[in-house]
Amino acid sequence: MGGKRRVLVVGGYGAVGHEVGRVLAADRDRLDLVVGGRDAAKAAAVAAELGVEHLRVDVDDRASVDAALAGIDLVVNCFIATREPSLAVPEAAATKGIAYVDVAGVPESFCERVLGLGDAAKASGATLVTALGLNPGLVGLLVAAQRAHFDALQSVDVYFVMGGRLGGLTARSMQGIADMVRAPARQWRDGAWQPPAPKSCGRKARPPFDRNVYFGPAMITTDLVGLPSALGLDAFRFWSGMERTLQGMAFLLGIRWGRADTPERAERFLRRLRWLGGKKSSDEIGLEVVAQGVRGAAPFERRVSFHCREELATALGAAFAVRQWLVDRLRSPGAFVPHQALDLGAFVDQLRQAPVGYEGSEAPLAAGGPAADLLAPRK
Question: Which DSSP helix (H) or strand (E) runs through 273?
């Protein structure tokens, strides 16, 4: 690619979009950043802070989207409604040959509809990458990146911890998380997705928590569905927990009782959960991947982890994808989930260099078996 490219961040004044803008503002020697959103005044305020352009765009109005994408080379979609989201932005990108990434998580049907635009994207020469938030997004990328370190990767356990302050969460995102919690949890074993067994585990979480955390099985998102078979895994388990056990129990019960079913109820529920978390809780999230397999005919284990604010974690995947696109490292053309499109080695390098407390370790395993034996379930 020659010359500077124009990148539009839709929803650029929201928590995640603002974070994407902050990260990409450091690349202004290579791109011209534009902050977009339905509220022109809010977009202008963030653009002034970042020293970039702004424009108004309504994602529910195809004419508005078409006008906003004029002269744009890549669009980052950070505004995906948790209920009946509009497909106008990815549809316009796919037909106009404009590169597209989003931070969609739920509803999963949105990600599936974006993937359904693959033929249109191929015809126009566009690359579309959906589900590039924290989860889905960074989780799948970090898991897929472990394959290069083993002769045979056998099992992966993922541990996600939400800090007690619930930093970065909003009423809208709470509704999306509630949908994920209600979805049936699954774990990979015996070559298929099956009901969780065991259904919970207790484990000491990595920094910044450094405390025992109760974990339950997490939803398997669109980007993770095909990973175990693609990586040749015998076992894959994704665990999710909260820094404070009481807070986590209240969260699960509240979701079951409909406390996040409307924006108003979700806002009240979020305030109560933060009160339960307490002022001494962390405002960060933590993610750890424990991978086990064979290297040089011997059992081996790798552990990688990072922690940062939730909104930064959600923004990083999209920002990393833009930077890879700038140097022609994104797969093209078509519609993809993150681990199909990004250069995984470059992604890990990007994560190491980000302000996320990245840590990694690896060591031979003593004889004794796979992760299922080493990581004992909570009694």
Answer: helix 263-277
Handedness of CA 94, 19, 324, 106 (dihedral sign): negative
Identify residue 255 by its one-letter amino acid code. I
Token pair of 67 as six digits? 């006008």
Task: Supply the pTM of this predicted model.
Answer: 0.91
pLDDT digits (tens, 9 = 90+) for 175-185: 778 877 888 88
Top-tier CATH class for 5-133+312-348: alpha beta
Question: Residue 106 above 50 pLDDT?
Answer: yes
Beta bridge partners of 193: 188
Instruction: Say whether 138-309+357-374 and 5-133+312-348 share the same fold.
Output: no
* pLDDT higher than 50, residue 370: no
Superfamily in which the 138-309+357-374 domain is placed by CATH: Dihydrodipicolinate Reductase; domain 2 (3.30.360.10)
pLDDT score recorded for residue 215: 94
